[in-house]
Design brief:
flat, mainly alpha, about 180 residues
Length: about 180
């Protein structure tokens, strides 16, 4: 579809009371979800970095979600990637520097986890040496924390997936022999 065809479609759609042509409404508008997963950042962490709720972040990261430019820049800051990597580019992969950054970040999280859980002093020293070498390659890795081994505590304003799945009270009132 050419720009002229798209503009004609939008002007006709605006006269009809809708804002986008049908095919434009179904195509992906951004790659936030894909980039967040590649960067190894949880939805909770991204929401916290953007000072928003998890529900809001979840709805914004859907590829068909039409978010504002200011929200796109908030995502850019939360994920630490250039804005152009968040935009759809005809199935183009992320740029090589961003992919390398994501790989180094995952490697550092693993090294920090090994260092934290190692009982043997020699393994701890080895992990710390590897961490220092990774920091030499990419200094921003200095602040990376290990993978969560048990889970992260939620604040009182955050809910888990159990809130999204409702169960009837009948399930809890059944006698134990029915299980």
């Amino acid at each position: 579809m050419s720009i002229a065809e798209w503009n004609a479609g939008t002007s006709e759609a605006n006269m009809a009371g809708t804002s986008l042509p049908a095919e434009a409404a179904t195509r992906p508008l951004h790659r936030i979800h894909e980039v967040r997963q590649q960067q190894g950042i949880s939805l909770r962490t991204a929401a916290r970095r953007m000072s928003t709720t998890i529900e809001n972040a979840r709805s914004q990261e859907k590829s068909e979600s039409d978010i504002s430019l200011s929200d796109l820049y908030r995502w850019q800051c939360a994920l630490g990637v250039p804005v152009e990597n968040l935009l759809v580019d005809l199935d183009a992969p992320l740029s090589m520097p961003i992919l390398q950054r994501a790989r180094l970040l995952k490697m550092m999280k693993t090294v920090r986890s090994i260092s934290e859980q190692a009982e043997c002093e020699s393994i701890q020293r080895l992990a710390e040496t590897l961490a220092q070498q990774l920091i030499e390659v990419m200094p921003e890795l200095k602040e990376v924390s290990p993978w969560h081994s048990v889970g992260q505590r939620r604040t009182l304003n955050e809910y888990g997936r159990i809130v999204e799945q409702t169960y009837s009270d009948h399930l809890f009132s059944m006698p134990s022999s029915d299980f």
